[in-house]
Design a protein that fits this description.
The protein is an all-alpha fold. The protein is built from ten helices and no strands.
Length: about 240
C-alpha cells in the first residue's frame, strides 16, 4: 500500500469502530422521545408519509441516473478522493445556499427545503459512486447508495444494523431482490425524519430561518459526504482483501 492508503486504512478503522459503537445515554433518550412521538401519529399517516418519501426518493434516483456520468475507469484511491472532496465542497455550498433561501421564506418555503435537500443529497451520492468507479445504472449500486443515506442519518442502533448489512456488500448484494419496492422504506423515512426534525425545525422560524437553514444544510451535506467516502473506502479495502 502507498503511504496515503495506509493513513486511509487507519482512518477507516476508527470510523468502523464508531459505526459499531453502542448508543449513548443522550442518543437513547432522544430516540425514546422520538419513538413516543411517532406512536401518537396515526398509522395511516405513517403509511402516507412512507409512500410519499418512497416515491420522492425513487423519482430522484431515476432522474439522477440520467444526469450522472457512468462508471469511470478506475484511478488511484488518492486521485478519486481529491475529486470527491471537490464534489462535496460544491454540493455543500449549494445546499447551504438553498437552506438560506428557503429558510428566509418562512414556513411555506421552509417546507420546500425537504424535497430539495433530498435531491441534492442523492445527486451527490450518485456523483461519488461514479467517481469511485461504480455504475449508478446498476440497481444494486443504487440500493447501496440508499444504505449510505441511512448510515449518515439514523439513530445509533439503526446505524449499526445498516453498517453490518453494508459489510461484504459485493457478496451480500447477490441475494438482493430485483424490485426496489421491497426495500425497507418505513424505517428509512422514519429514521431520516427523526434525525433531521429537530435540526430543521428552527429553519421555519422567521428571522433566524435563513442562517439556521444554511448552517444545518452545510453540516448535513458535510456528514453525508464523509460517510459516503468512508463507505467506499470500506469497499475498496474489501476488494483489496485488506479487511
Amino acid at each position: 500500500m502507498t503511504i496515503y492508503e495506509q493513513v486511509m486504512m487507519q482512518e477507516l478503522q476508527v470510523w468502523q469502530r464508531r459505526m459499531m459503537r453502542k448508543p449513548g445515554i443522550f442518543n437513547r433518550l432522544s430516540k425514546s422521545v422520538q419513538d413516543k412521538v411517532n406512536s401518537w401519529i396515526p398509522e395511516k399517516v405513517h403509511r402516507a408519509i412512507t409512500v410519499t418519501i418512497k416515491q420522492m426518493i425513487r423519482g430522484v434516483l431515476f432522474g439522477a441516473k440520467f444526469t450522472t456520468r457512468d462508471k469511470k475507469t478506475p484511478v488511484s484511491l488518492e486521485e478519486s478522493d481529491k475529486v470527491v472532496e471537490e464534489k462535496i465542497k460544491i454540493y455543500r455550498n449549494t445546499a447551504a445556499a438553498e437552506g438560506a433561501i428557503t429558510g428566509a421564506g418562512g414556513i411555506l418555503l421552509g417546507l420546500a427545503d425537504f424535497p430539495l435537500l433530498i435531491a441534492i443529497k442523492i445527486k451527490l451520492l450518485f456523483e461519488i459512486a461514479a467517481t469511485y468507479g461504480y455504475s449508478v445504472n446498476d440497481y444494486k449500486e443504487r440500493v447501496y447508495i440508499l444504505h449510505i443515506f441511512q448510515l449518515a442519518f439514523s439513530s445509533a442502533k439503526h446505524r449499526k444494523n445498516v453498517f453490518m448489512t453494508m459489510k461484504n456488500w459485493d457478496e451480500k448484494s447477490k441475494s438482493l431482490p430485483e424490485d426496489i419496492h421491497q426495500f425497507e422504506w418505513r424505517p428509512f423515512q422514519q429514521e431520516y425524519r427523526d434525525y433531521i426534525d429537530l435540526a430543521k425545525f428552527a429553519q421555519l422560524i422567521p428571522v433566524i430561518g435563513a442562517p439556521v437553514g444554511a448552517v444545518v444544510n452545510y453540516r448535513l451535506i458535510r456528514k453525508l459526504g464523509f460517510t459516503a467516502k468512508m463507505a467506499y473506502h470500506m469497499r475498496w479495502a474489501e476488494e483489496q482483501h485488506l479487511v
